[in-house]
Amino acid sequence: MYTQGLDQQGKPEQEKQRRPAESEAELRAFQRRCDAEEKIEAKDWMPEAYRRTLVRQISQHAHSEIIGMQPEGNWLTRAPSLKRKVILLAKVQDEAGHGLYLYSAAETLGVSRDKMVDDLLSGKAKYSSIFNYATLTWADIGAIGWLVDGAAIMNQVPLCRCSYGPYARAMVRVCKEESFHQRQGFDIMHVLCSGSEAQKAMAQDALNRWWWPSLMMFGPSDKDSEHSAQSMAWKIKRFSNDELRQKFVDATVPQAEFLGLRVPDDDLHFNEATGHYEFGDIDWQEFYDVLAGNGPCNRERLAKRQKAHDDGAWVREAARAYAAKHAVQEAA
Ligand code: FAQ
């Protein structure tokens, strides 16, 4: 156990209440540390709400990486060449690695891996809405790399400066790998857009289906974002959801133009005065439907994750037996 925090979830009420009340002085001193850009480490004192916010965000992030392997994994055996297959395999393996660093970062806050996985499988914990959409064609793999990894980088580069040290440090490596992913996605789109009419149409169709869900990845608009204000005060988040979404649109629209593709938004236009692209209304009903478990692939994604978990039971059992054997040997 690395931390002063205990996993309070699932504990009897009277036990939770035994944690000493947080004094105003402690809370103020903690905020001063955040304001001074000090890194908070696992053994440092932290408000319980800060710890809970991080466990929520980091575990959701880890679940997203793990569930996020499925839409692309779907194309591993069907990638159009050996080279594309090898690249995609490496990318999907990277996502598994990101999930593992992130679960480890969350564990430093005193929550167990088993608890996080249980919360995912029971539907209690969220993962990114984007991974509930289907990958129908090869161009979807290009669109995921270009748009989904592009959005992930926009969100995650500022997380390298997150106040919580273990999360910030994990993000540095994750972001380096995500930027390779984004380029491989753009490269797939570029090749398709320089190919036949049918290939270009496939790329356009993928952009049509992935554009709006990619904008939703950044979360609800600022006025509806319940956690943003506190997370920004604690310097977990550095930019609001809407600020990051705008940065993504500003960076991505010229890339679509370079590819010769049309962003599927009749209201999209560049505002010379502000220097930003203005875009149409997001269908927030669709976003909340996906969050409620009713997206195109929610059930399929969780069922597949549950099956993988069940199939892996013997590995966990073997690891426990191995650890027990070594503990006995060490004690002797
Ligand atoms: N999907 O108050 P806020 C990737 C929830 S990794 C589902 O604004 P917050 C790599 C939110 O949790 C992608 N739920 O929340 C890859 C909260 O619900 P809760 C994942 C969402 O935390 C690429 C409620 O709505 N990235 O793509 C979503 O301040 C390719 C209210 O929202 C991260 O996790 C959503 N899109 O801001 C892998 C980055 N948006 O928890 C494979 C780290 C919001 O109260 C292939 N996370 N919600 O039940 C974050 O930056 C933040 O958590 C936000 C949300 C920005 C996602």
Would you kindly provide a written description of the structure presented here, covering whatever features stand out?
The structure is a single chain. This protein has 332 residues and is mostly helical. It has helices at residues 13-16, 24-35, 48-67, 69-73, 82-107, 113-121, 138-156, 165-193, 197-216, 228-233, 241-259, 284-294, 298-311, 313-331, and strands at 269-271, 276-278. Helix 3 (48-67) runs antiparallel to helix 5 (82-107), helix 5 (82-107) runs antiparallel to helix 8 (165-193) and helix 7 (138-156) runs antiparallel to helix 11. It is globular. The chain starts with 12 loop residues before the first helix and ends with a helix. Bound molecules: Phenylacetyl coenzyme A (FAQ). The site of Phenylacetyl coenzyme A has 28 residues, from helix 3, helix 7 and helix 10.
Order of SSEs, N→C?
HHHHHHHHHHHEEHHH
Percent strand:
under 5%
Tally of separate helices:
14
- Biggest sheet strand line-up: 1-2
Rg, rounded, reads 21 Å
Which term fits the overall shape?
A: globular
Which oligomeric state applies?
Answer: single chain
- The average pLDDT is 94
The count of strands amounts to 2
The main pleated sheet reads as:
2 strands, antiparallel
Give me a quick take on this structure.
The chain has helices at 13-16, 24-35, 48-67, 69-73, 82-107, 113-121, 138-156, 165-193, 197-216, 228-233, 241-259, 284-294, 298-311, 313-331; strands spanning 269-271, 276-278.
What's the arrangement of secondary structure elements?
Layout: H1 13-16, H2 24-35, H3 48-67, H4 69-73, H5 82-107, H6 113-121, H7 138-156, H8 165-193, H9 197-216, H10 228-233, H11 241-259, E1 269-271, E2 276-278, H12 284-294, H13 298-311, H14 313-331
Helix pairs in contact: 3-5, 5-8, 7-8, 7-9, 7-11
The protein binds Phenylacetyl coenzyme A.
